[in-house]
Structure formats: structure tokens, C-alpha cells
Inverse folding.
């Protein structure tokens, strides 16, 4: 069994527009944009990262905004809901705030004793805010949300699956333990992991999902460093998973493999971090390009990328 997974590192999704995506995460949810770069494989598409002050692993939501992308179709084999942790007693604030910002799909519920507020992102993305009383992570408060209400980082992610058996077995192999079951949901967590250490497997009868705007592209799990990442990779390949070689993503190293339920998993290092090429005070301000795409800067900065007005 793997012992080196801490919990979530980041979640990466698809969007239909950069400006609307940026406004939602910074002006509505109050997160900080910690990096503005481009897709390694499609440099005419942004890769935008939002999180806490420094983009701590377990807080970072990332997006590929493909201009005018068609909406995804919800179904099985996908991450259906990405949930963020907020302080106890703050859901009333958030319900009012999200309503004033025109956010749709607002619905309160309780899962495993925790109060949740579900809502939709600009492209129909599935999100929830979960009240937690013991999340000690320092929030980002630079975008107008106070410390008593601000998002701390991820709480969990839901995987919508027709059959949860294979994914449950994989999570156990990755060091997760089953916590509870109720109403078709099985909750797993990493004991002594980071605060973003919960995965809910949701069994549903539905057609397979199709990715598009509003869909989660992949979900990434955190390891401390490259040495531990290599150990995780060996354990997965020895078990029969087809895992990519290690890929340098500038701000972390990554490996990828497909889970039994169809969700694309990544294992990402906590090093070197988002401050490797910008100081903390100015994270996310300048367009940062991977070295292989630096020659494209004039074109990208002069119409090749949708302008983002902060």
C-alpha cells in the first residue's frame, strides 16, 4: 500500500472563457489568482490557477479556458462536485453573497453531519461549500471576503461512478481509509493527511459523461517531493497501472494514470511551488510561459490570448 499521498493537490477543469472564469474565482469566491500561464500542449489556451496566498497544495483550482467551448455532459466517470472548506456558521453569508452575484443552483444539504451549500460555476461546474470547524489553514482575504467566511482550500471531491468497487480498491491502495457510507455515497480520507484529504465515491445510474466546459479534466493528489513521487509511480506500475513518465510542469512534477472508474488521476509534487518565478506579493500578475513557448510571447500577448481585466 502507498503511504506517501497527502490528499488533494489541485483540481483542473475546463471553461469557455477566461474573463468569466477569472471573475468567478477571484471576485465571487474571493480566491487569489496565483498563476497565469498557458496549457503546455495548447499554448493559445490559458492555464489559470486560483488558491490561497501562495497556492498551497490542497487549495488550488486550475482551469483551461477554451474560448467558446461547448458545455460538457454530466454523467458517470467524472468528478461531479469539487467542495471547498469554509468556517462553521458561514453558509448564510455565502448563500447571500452567491445569490447577489447571480450564481445558480444554490441548494443546501447535509452529508455525514456536515452542512453543505451546492452551487454551479459559470459553465455549470459542480461546486459545494462545506462548513468545517477544525480547518486551521490560513485563508486568502485579499479579494473582499473576511477571514471568518473565506475559503480555506479544498474539503473534498465527489467521483460519480456507475460501479465504485474498482475506485474504492484503488483509493485504499493509495492510503485512503473508508470513513462512512450513506445514501449511495462512500467517504474515504487519508489519516493524518493535509486538510484536503477526503474523496466521496457516489454511485449513480447514468450515461457516461462527455468532457466540455464545466467538466473536471483531472484530479491531482499531493506528494511531498520527487523521491516520494517515484515511489508512488513504482507501486502503481507494479500493480498494473499504466502511468506516464514524470513530466515537469514548472511549478510541480506530475505523473498521470486513468482510474478504474474513468477519472484521470495525477500525482503532483508539492515542490517547487508557484513562487519559483514570481515573488509572493505579485503571484498571478504576469503572463508566465513555459520555456518552450517563450518565443510565442509577442503573439500571445497581442491578441493570441483573451485579455483578462482584473
Amino acid at each position: 500500500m502507498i503511504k506517501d499521498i497527502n490528499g488533494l493537490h489541485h483540481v483542473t477543469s475546463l471553461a469557455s472563457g477566461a474573463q468569466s472564469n477569472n471573475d468567478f474565482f477571484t471576485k465571487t469566491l474571493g480566491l487569489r489568482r496565483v498563476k497565469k500561464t498557458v496549457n503546455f500542449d495548447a499554448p493559445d489556451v490559458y492555464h489559470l490557477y486560483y488558491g490561497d496566498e501562495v497556492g498551497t497544495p490542497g487549495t488550488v483550482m486550475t482551469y483551461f479556458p477554451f474560448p467558446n467551448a461547448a458545455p460538457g455532459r454530466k454523467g458517470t466517470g467524472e468528478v461531479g462536485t469539487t467542495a471547498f472548506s469554509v468556517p462553521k456558521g458561514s453558509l448564510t453569508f455565502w448563500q447571500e453573497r452567491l445569490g447577489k452575484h447571480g450564481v445558480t443552483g444554490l441548494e443546501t444539504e447535509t452529508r455525514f453531519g456536515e452542512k453543505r451549500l451546492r452551487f454551479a460555476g459559470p459553465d455549470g461546474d459542480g461546486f459545494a461549500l462545506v462548513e468545517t470547524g477544525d480547518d486551521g489553514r490560513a485563508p486568502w482575504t485579499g479579494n473582499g471576503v473576511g477571514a471568518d467566511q473565506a475559503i480555506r482550500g479544498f474539503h473534498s471531491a465527489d467521483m460519480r461512478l456507475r460501479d465504485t468497487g474498482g475506485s474504492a480498491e484503488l483509493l485504499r491502495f493509495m492510503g485512503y481509509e473508508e470513513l462512512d457510507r450513506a445514501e449511495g455515497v462512500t467517504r474515504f480520507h487519508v489519516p493524518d493527511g493535509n486538510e484536503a484529504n477526503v474523496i466521496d465515491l457516489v454511485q449513480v445510474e447514468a450515461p457516461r459523461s462527455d468532457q466540455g466546459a464545466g467538466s473536471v479534466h483531472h484530479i491531482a493528489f499531493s506528494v511531498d517531493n520527487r523521491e516520494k513521487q517515484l515511489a508512488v509511480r513504482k507501486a502503481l506500475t507494479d500493480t498494473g497501472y499504466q502511468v506516464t513518465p514524470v513530466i515537469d510542469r514548472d511549478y510541480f512534477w506530475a505523473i498521470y494514470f486513468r482510474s478504474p472508474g474513468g477519472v484521470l488521476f495525477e500525482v503532483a509534487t508539492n515542490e517547487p511551488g508557484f513562487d519559483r518565478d514570481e515573488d509572493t506579493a505579485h503571484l498571478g500578475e504576469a503572463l508566465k510561459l513555459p520555456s518552450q513557448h517563450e518565443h510565442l510571447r509577442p503573439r500571445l500577448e497581442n491578441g493570441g490570448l483573451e485579455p483578462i481585466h482584473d
The mean pLDDT is 97. The chain has one domain: 8-304. The two ends are 45 Å apart (CA to CA). Residues 246 and 255 are 5 Å apart (CA to CA).
